[in-house]
Specification:
Two copies of one chain form a homodimer. Chain A starts with 7 loop residues before the first helix and ends in a 7-residue tail after the last helix. Chain A is mainly alpha-helical. Chain A is elongated. In chain A, strands 1-2 form a two-stranded antiparallel sheet. Chain A has two domains: 80 residues, Multidrug-efflux Transporter Regulator, Chain: A, Domain 2 (Orthogonal Bundle); 55 residues. In chain A, 23% of the residues are buried. In chain A, a hairpin with a 5-residue loop joins strand 1 and strand 2. At the A-B interface, helix 3, helix 4, helix 5 and helix 6 of A face helix 3, helix 4, helix 5 and helix 6 of B. Chain A binds a DNA duplex through helix 2.
DNA sequence: ACTGCACCCTGTAGCCACTACAGGGTCAAG
DNA sequence: CTTGACCCTGTAGTGGCTACAGGGTGCAGT
């Protein structure tokens, strides 16, 4: 039993990817079009399983499709320096850092606003007041 | 000079919203269709300026369109309790909190992975290794 | 009166990364 | 030989815009 053939459903379960998503990855060229069975079913092997697992892990880490494309292509050039890979990862880390600090600032404003809410009527609600332009709040 | 009439471009500048976005808000019913001039230009007044400012502030705080719809409708019922408003805001705060903690966890994994990178060749790159399924990394 | 330009109009398509059908075909178990 | 789980293609929808294309309007300068 060498490298069983996987249907799209098997591959889906094995990688935790929805069937539609796998077909989507094929459509956008992230996965190559696989061999087909007599009944026109997609037939996947270990190679595709590996590639899809890689993609999923990278997605979980928040990499974008184009970044993953680059990572995949770089990962095949084993003897090259991994400088380019490092750069993609660092760029992404910076992106995540920026996103976190944006959200933390937003959270502060939101939290403060909610804290100030008097639990009274809408007319005196500080949340609405915070959103309303000056002098429009009556 | 009582409440000058604003063109869509004026409203755009006054609120920092792109013209296309204003038209989009109209299309989805977040802004009412305004009066028109003889030449079929949209003619806005203070009311719309106020409403759009409100929407923009809420968007900056990350509220979704449907939440803003609810906030706008609630904000008109001045004598009601602001409980429902408080709830929307709290729900959104929770959402933001969850997003932050997800991103912080992700950041940790990413950061650790990058730290481990030996700056050698792709074959020994820890970033690629972290993404590769077990036993696929050679 | 004419020209040029900035602005406005509608309608449609694109972005990201999927997700969700509709309307059919295939395959294995009972 | 039927049932039901799976598979196929193709298209449209999600959120919240953004970007055209292909036209019309308004006003300042000449």
């Amino acid at each position: 039993m060498r490298s069983a053939v996987l249907t799209i459903g098997n591959l889906s379960k094995a990688t935790g990817t929805k069937v539609e998503t796998i077909r989507y990855y094929e459509r956008i060229g992230l996965l190559a079009a696989p061999a087909r069975t007599a009944g026109n079913y997609r037939a996947y092997g270990k190679t595709e399983l590996g590639r899809l697992s890689f993609i999923r892990r990278a997605r979980e880490l928040g990499f974008g499709i184009d970044q993953i494309r680059a990572l995949l292509s770089l990962s095949e050039k084993k003897r090259r320096s991994c400088k380019a890979i490092d750069e993609i990862a660092r760029e992404h880390l910076e992106h995540v850092d920026r996103k976190i600090s944006d959200l933390v600032m937003l959270r502060e404003v939101l939290h403060t606003t909610i804290q100030e809410c008097s639990r009274g009527t809408v007319a005196t609600c500080r949340i609405i007041e915070a959103l309303s332009p000056v002098g429009q709040n009556r």
